[in-house]
């Protein structure tokens, strides 16, 4: 009788203190809308994103790792590591000996490109008894130390990334995985507004229309979570891999054309990755490094040229064998070798540039409500997700301290009461 009373008092005290009494395990859905820049909600009416911010957390912006391109930055979301540390240094697999290159989609299937010593969160979660899934998220097609996400779907080669009906079907599919297969963690990828931002530019009406489509989809995602009975267990994090900036049209500015730079010759290179965007990597032939470097360094006021070992530390893009000896990037608006430039928008610039910053929203039982927070680096999303899921993170470059102020003061993880 007495112990029962103590128990009731304890329950009462817990309820007063606002501690969660239910022991339901927390789930996490990580969503990426490719190329959604931090300020895309400022010139478009976005009622669903606004509602999500009111019901949860909105960051002013987040800082992606350098190089600000799709596969490397997504692998940072999955691992909490800077690109030099996780090794997925480019969208394109390449072999400097054979000079073979594979484009973005084909590189998804090159296992050794991805399975390179760093485990993505799906595998870590599964090794610790959770169930993970992924739909279209970069890195999904590869296996890691022989393991894959237990439920996964990779898009076909010719895939229409902007079909809103397919977005809704994919949303319902993922919610079904959570409800019917009791998955704990899923990553979900949408290929827009990146495609539209490239094609029409970030300041175009087409981009604003696509942001409206994203916003409707955010509303649909939250409605679908509710209909699947997931409101009390599912935490939804929505972010992106990088932003987008307008590029100058041909003839508007003095272009950066490597072949026209005095003293520079492609014949001095044994391999290069210069892909009509703002970044490039060069492997000079033996004995030619100084010649190539001296020709390029200072050759154009908007071209940055670095030897790998002299790269600014803050970019965390040097200490990896896959990174080539000379690294180039241009200032916003400029592209390298853009003679065939047909994109009106680009990314891949310095991650300090505001136009490269993605957005961030989170909602769910683990998150505070109506909270606006300052910017943080996307390496910190990984330890946040591990904390909510109650799993031990791998070695990573993020810190829970950077994001834990977004969480309710105490969170039930794995049925345990943890306060921090
Ligand atoms: Zn992208």
From TrEMBL:
<dbReference type="InterPro" id="IPR002591">
    <property type="entry name" value="Phosphodiest/P_Trfase"/>
</dbReference>
<dbReference type="Pfam" id="PF01663">
    <property type="entry name" value="Phosphodiest"/>
</dbReference>
<dbReference type="InterPro" id="IPR017850">
    <property type="entry name" value="Alkaline_phosphatase_core_sf"/>
</dbReference>
<feature type="signal peptide">
    <location>
        <begin position="1"/>
        <end position="18"/>
    </location>
</feature>
<protein>
    <submittedName>
        <fullName>Ectonucleotide pyrophosphatase/phosphodiesterase 7</fullName>
    </submittedName>
</protein>
<keyword id="KW-0732">Signal</keyword>
